[in-house]
Design brief:
This protein is an all-alpha fold. Helix content is about 65%, strand content about 0%. It has six helices and no strands. Helix 1 runs antiparallel to helix 5. The chain starts with 10 loop residues before the first helix and ends with a helix.
């Protein structure tokens, strides 16, 4: 008798994707600044959360994380007039989450996941230190 086991997204990848959603919200909520356009923040956060819905399919998760990061990178730079620059680290975190699977890349996954979590900690500390 054979048992078929479905491969899921690794917890490191899922954690980095969750950080990509949460990290930009901390400066928006913490600042209380009218500089941020709230409907754009909500729409961009919803777009950033798309890979989280594909946690059961690693190939779909990686593809979605890469596509969302590719869309988010220019959007964060162009939308910087509306406060969307806070989503720039999310693009990097999504790219790191797409490539930090230790089952596929055992050598570089630890480095990529560590760099991602370090970025996820450094960005809120930078914003907190600014205030």
């Amino acid at each position: 008798m054979q048992v078929t086991v479905r491969e899921r997204v690794h917890p490191w990848q899922l954690g980095l994707a969750v950080c990509a959603v949460v990290v930009p919200l901390l400066p928006v909520v913490g600042s209380g600044d009218p500089f941020f356009v709230l409907p754009l923040v909500v729409a961009t956060t919803a777009l950033t959360a798309v890979p989280l819905f594909l946690h059961a399919r690693p190939s779909g998760f990686q593809r979605a994380a890469g596509i969302v990061a590719a869309v988010l990178l220019p959007w964060s730079l162009i939308g910087s007039w509306f406060g969307m620059f806070v989503f720039f680290p999310s693009a990097l975190l999504l790219l790191l989450s797409a490539f930090s699977d230790p089952r596929r890349r055992p050598g570089s996954a630890k480095f990529l996941a560590g760099a991602g979590f370090l970025l996820a900690v450094a960005v809120p500390l930078f914003w907190w230190g600014r205030g």
